[in-house]
Amino acid sequence: MTARVPYAGNPLDAFVERMTRDLARRVSRRSFLGNVGALLFTTGVPLLPVARGAAPTAARPEAAADPGDPQTCEYWRHCAIDGFLCACCGGSIQSCPPGTEASAITWVGTCHNPADGHDYIVSYNDCCGKSQCGRCLCNRNEGDKPLYMPFKSNDYNWCAGSKVGIAYHCSTARVVGVAK
Amino acid sequence: MSRGRRAWASAALALSACLCGPRGWAQIPAEPEGVVEQLPARPAPHWVWVNDMAFFAFPDGKAFLVDGDSGRMLGMLSTGYSFTSVLIPRTGAVIYAPEIYFSRGTRGTRSDVVTIYDATRLEPVGEIEIPPKRASLMPMPGAQALTDDDRFLLIYNFTPSQSVTVVDTHSRKFVGEIETAGCALVYPTGPRSFFSICGDGALLETTLTDAGTLARRERTAELIDVLKDPLSEKGVRRGDTWLFASFEGVLHPLRATGAGVEAQPTWPLFTPQELAQHWRTGGLQHLAVHGASGRLFAVVHQGGPGTHKDPGEQVWVYDLASHKRMQTITTRNKIGSIQVSQDSQPLLFGCSIDSNRLDIYDATSGKYLRTVESLGLTPTVLVLP
């Protein structure tokens, strides 16, 4: 016989959802991100990988440290991606094509960089607000988990978390840190 | 030429024109205008719905109805954005399709509905508005389901807050939304109950009232080791038992009892030697079960870890009573989705999201029968009417 406990939902989830929805009603997305970013920067609060979708972009490291062609499925960062590669669609591995919106939440993979031997946490933020780019479709599933583990699953359309809605265009592959 | 001979020659020419000419006896009669086909009241046992998420044209989801015996396409539904699958109640009189539309194609106001289609005319006869929260995901069994008495339609939501939308099919109205925070998908276990799988490997069991509102929720202990060997969420059901395969090929039967869902003893789909040869299950709908004979069909491939979505070129058939593999079916093409008709002479259907063809086999002998080409863009889930 399996032990059972009454279910009352996850109180933390419910609290965060209430707060987020309330904030979303009152504050514009841009000013919210700016203020939260400033707060986190000054207080040194660590960010969860899945919440890093809206961080500012940085120039791609030298090719020697980041080998491979981001327009190919074989590129090392694409080890758990599922979708159209933004690098083929007017964006890059870390930026969305013009006129789309980056989803703020997403799934993450852990990919091995053959150049330096490190495993990196890669955030696959979807770019949203238009129909599919339709170019460079890529599906790799290293470390991918089922739908009941959402932040490790590439089977969700993560545009669900964007302001423009679920219209999916393409996926990026941003490094957010070295996996410990 | 004499008058008599001329007369005979004219007669012969006229006869020849009648028999061989473009205006001969075989002339096609005029046909009626505006005829529209209608399907029989009851679906045939070898029909199958091929659901197309149209991944390259997301706003244009479709569902194709195919007759497995003739290979004929019988009709189609046009089912909107990020389409998952049709649902067929046991009466077969209507078809339910959870659909999403935007007022400007891919932007504007999002509108989520359950469209009700007449099953013989394949045209909409009703529409139920639901909250714009339905999960947009790779289609798979578990994203939506009917309760065992077909009274309530359950739809998994992901916004990314997780919940289930409940629709009353009798009143054709949205009943409400039930929170399932931390738990995903819907697997019916009775007329008023279903479970969801939680991120920590527990199950969330939900019981409904007769009005479709929440009666009770209980969370089991952690039944699945999600870190070591997670279960693929693409389960199939035989009677009171749901069957799930783990990434490493262990079959987990989860049985619904009066006291809730209980984990039954697991058993391996692969021998240690087969595992060493990297045999794994894989695909989008990689399991199917033939209820009467107790046979489990599994799409397999050689690939090892990280290939749990890869299609295969073999279907291994197991006896659910003895847990023995009793048959190997080598497929004509790579397939990731399978379905088995439930009659006494069953067909095995197989398709892959990577092509748009449906392959059909004799499910008993494994003999290849036929292929139906050009069914949409990216076929996903196969559903029996």
What does this entry look like structurally?
The complex is a heterodimer of chains A (180) and B (385). Chain A has 2 helices and 9 strands, in the order E-H-H-E-E-E-E-E-E-E-E. Chain A has 180 residues and is α+β, with helices and mostly antiparallel strands. Chain A has 2 domains: 10-46; 48-178, Electron Transport Ethylamine Dehydrogenase. In chain A, strands 3-6-8 form a 3-stranded antiparallel sheet, with no helix packed on it. In chain A, strands 4-5-9 form a 3-stranded antiparallel sheet, with no helix packed on it. Chain A is globular. Chain A starts with a strand and ends with a strand. Chain B has one domain: 7 Propeller (Methylamine Dehydrogenase, Chain H), CATH 2.130.10. Chain B has 2 helices and 29 strands. In chain B, the strands form 7 sheets. In chain B, strands 15, 16, 17, 18 and 19 form a 5-stranded antiparallel sheet that branches. In chain B, strands 20, 21, 22, 23 and 24 form a 5-stranded antiparallel sheet that branches. Chains A and B meet through strand 1 and helix 1 of A and strand 11, strand 12, strand 14 and strand 18 of B.
Shape of chain B: globular
Low-confidence runs of chain B (pLDDT<50, min 5 residues)? none
Largest sheet of chain A: 3 strands, antiparallel
Please give the alpha-carbon distance between the first and last residues of chain B.
73 Å
What top-tier CATH class of chain B fits best? Mainly Beta
Shape annotation of chain A: globular
Give the fraction of residues assigned to helices of chain A: 10-25%
CATH superfamily of the largest domain in chain A: Methylamine/Aralkylamine dehydrogenase light chain
What is the name of the CATH superfamily of chain B? YVTN repeat-like/Quinoprotein amine dehydrogenase
Q: Percentage of helical residues of chain B?
A: under 10%
The overall pLDDT of chain B, averaged over residues, is 94
